[in-house]
Amino acid sequence: KSLEFLAHPLALTIFEDRVYWIDGENEAVYGANKFTGSELATLVNNLNDAQD
């Protein structure tokens, strides 16, 4: 399942206990708990030409 959300990561940032990344193939922004990888959420999708 994790490969679905990590197809082509372009950028990564960490804020408090969360990690966020842009995926270029899925054209979306995802977030998850940085310690466990749980609480995975799609924050934004259908981005055109997602960039750092």
TrEMBL record:
UniProt entry tagged with the keyword NAD: no
* UniProt keyword terms in alphabetical order: Lipoprotein, Receptor
Q: What Gene3D superfamilies does the entry give?
A: TolB, C-terminal domain
- Show the InterPro entries listed in the entry: 6-blade_b-propeller_TolB-like (IPR011042), LDLR_classB_rpt (IPR000033)
Domain of life (superkingdom): Eukaryota
What SUPFAM superfamilies would the database entry show?
A: YWTD domain (SSF63825)
Pfam family, any one: Ldl_recept_b
Name recorded for this polypeptide: Very low density lipoprotein receptor
Organism of this sequence: Sus scrofa
